[in-house]
Design brief:
- This protein has 119 residues and is mainly β.
- Helices cover 0% and strands 52% of the residues.
- The protein has strands at 4-7, 10-13, 18-24, 32-39, 46-52, 58-60, 68-73, 78-83, 92-100, 108-109, 113-118.
- Strand 9 (92-100) and strand 10 form a beta hairpin.
């Protein structure tokens, strides 16, 4: 069973930066679409960014585009989410998931990591 482990969350002031990591227990980051979601208190889970393993293409939600960068280090079986210019609306639990390429089937999920942005 593939496991995804997120890390890197924490408390940061508005305007600051964080880098989240998602490490897979097996080498799936090159064949799956590695995706970040987030869920704020009282809100539905929302898509943040995806790194499509086979094509190296990326996509971002409009709310983070230009501030967040998703990238992959295949040798480490890890996908990162670099988050700059954080604001309080970015406060959420961030989840990493692996999707079958170009589908919305997500067989693997991480446990989530909390990101809290203070004013």
């Amino acid at each position: 069973q593939v496991q995804l482990v997120e890390s890197g969350g924490g408390l940061v002031q508005a305007g600051g930066s964080l880098r989240l990591s998602c490490t897979a227990s097996e080498g799936i980051v090159s064949t799956y679409d590695m995706t970040w979601f987030r869920q704020a208190p009282g809100k539905e889970r929302e898509f943040v960014a995806v790194f499509r393993g086979p094509t190296l293409r990326t996509k971002y939600s409009s709310s983070v585009k230009g501030r967040f960068t998703i990238y992959r280090v295949s040798a480490k079986n890890t996908v990162y989410l670099r988050m700059n210019y954080l604001n309080v609306e970015d406060t959420a639990v961030y989840y990493c998931a692996a999707a079958v390429h170009m589908t919305t089937t997500y067989p693997y999920w991480g446990q989530g990591t909390q990101v809290t942005v203070s004013p």
